Amino acid sequence: MIRVLLADDQTLVRASFAMLVDSASDMEVVGQAGTGREAVELARSARADLVVMDVRMPDLDGIEATRLIAADDDLAGVKVLVLTTYDTDEHVVEALRAGASGFVVKDIRPAELLDAIRTVAAGESLLSPGPTARLISRVLAVPDGPPRTGGPEHLSERERQVLGLVARGLNNTEIAEALGLSPLTAKTHVSRIMGKVGARDRAQLVVIAYESGLVAPGISSA
Questions:
Q1: Which residues belong to any copy of the Response regulatory domain (predicted)?
Q2: Buried-most residue among 13, 53, 92, 167 (CB within 10 A)?
């Protein structure tokens, strides 16, 4: 079971999402938070696997709440899926820098939200090609200080190729097809890269790839 914590300052939104999540056989709602600070506290006490986090909340916004969760060693396994009203919200990129694993817009279809929760809970990032990826690449192409984690300078040439494709939103199967590898080998490369650069998940790999200059918008990474 995926233990889900819902953080949103709108009671009706939380209630709607709670009904949806509880309707899935593989997940359950273990808490609801109306502020960012409450979300951080409940992430600890409710032993959540994943937090669906609204960006704009009182007391402590979703970005700072995400940063606190990502920095807490006791919450190392907790994933954050950010909620936003518009997919052009550049606060989303700040949330990715803070440690979020992806984001969805609030008008997402019910089945898509459940799939997004499963994807992020499984350790993948929700950064598929399209407007979302263009937003991320455009903003992350302008570094906001040094990367919070490591960089790609010690990666092999093959690992740099794999990292570039991860930054483009490709999953392991697509990376394998692009580089002529088996999916297992691609997965092994991704895991090894995460260990070398100190990334929590694939979303942080995307941040590192753009902030380090390994990948730039509109430029092929392979």
A1: 3-121
A2: 53
